[in-house]
Design brief:
Radius of gyration: 17 Å
Structural class: alpha/beta
Mean pLDDT: 96
Largest sheet: 7 strands, mixed
Number of strands: 14
Length: 242
């Protein structure tokens, strides 16, 4: 399983970091956690076929996690017509698809049928290559974290968590088995708030993603405290082979 960050910034872009989007590759298949950027640009730059996208999993509907979805649906409606991903929506599929259909109609595009699904807690996807389990979080009314399992590896994406910190909504049950990589946001609170949650847990590597520079000192403190495991800070185009 390979993870590539197309965007690693917080709620707004920074000079060298775009908004949230991460590609997960398993064999020849590609999947996305969030689409805060126009991912087709990145796929073409990397020489990857658009038809390789088999799933899109949105953590919540804030624009910095979803603004790229419209352009993806647009291009896949009139040009990359053979692309057929499963698209998982936190909240009302009807509301989201109506909004997307209306926006595409403004530029003269008729949105073709896509496989949209509403996210609910539990296992939501398993195509034989990748298994995705959703965990409800308290960031907003409807938001989720995801556990990805493939090729014998387990990768956790926190999405955005409760603004006061992750103590109330971090799904510690994911640690019933070792986690190879935990990708945790830090846009709304200092990363040090993860320390008591991760203490003594079987996690092999931590990546702080979607972070705000105002918590830079907390990022340093987190890394200095967890000297027992590798801690890295995400940047655009960073890759992990898990």
């Amino acid at each position: 399983m390979r993870i590539v960050f197309f965007g690693s910034s917080h709620g707004v872009p920074e000079p060298n970091r775009k908004c949230s989007a991460a590609m997960v590759s398993v064999g020849e298949n590609n999947y996305f956690i969030d689409m805060g950027v126009q991912v087709i640009d990145g796929l073409i730059t990397r020489g990857l076929p658009i038809t390789s996208v088999k799933g899109v999993f949105l953590t919540h509907m804030h624009g910095d996690h979803t603004n790229g979805l419209i352009s993806f649906l647009d291009l896949c409606s009139w040009y990359f017509k053979d692309t057929d991903p499963a698209v998982y929506i936190p909240g009302s599929v009807e509301t989201v698809t109506a909004a997307a259909r209306g926006w595409l109609a403004v530029n003269g595009t008729e949105m073709r049928p896509f496989r949209f699904f509403e996210v609910n807690a539990g296992v939501i996807f398993d195509d034989g290559a990748l298994r995705v389990t959703a965990y409800r979080t308290k960031h907003i009314g409807i938001s989720y974290a995801y556990l990805l399992e493939a090729e014998g590896k387990r990768v956790f994406f926190s999405g955005d968590m409760c603004h006061q910190g992750p103590a109330e909504d971090f799904p510690v049950e994911i640690f019933e088995k070792p986690v190879d990589l935990a990708i945790c946001e830090a846009a709304h609170f200092s990363p040090v708030k993860y320390l008591p949650i991760l203490e003594g847990q079987p996690v092999k590597k931590v990546c702080i993603n979607h972070y705000s520079e105002r918590f830079r000192q907390g990022m340093i403190e987190f890394k200095e405290t967890r000297t027992d495991i590798p801690v890295v800070f995400a940047s655009d185009n960073m890759e992990f082979n898990v």
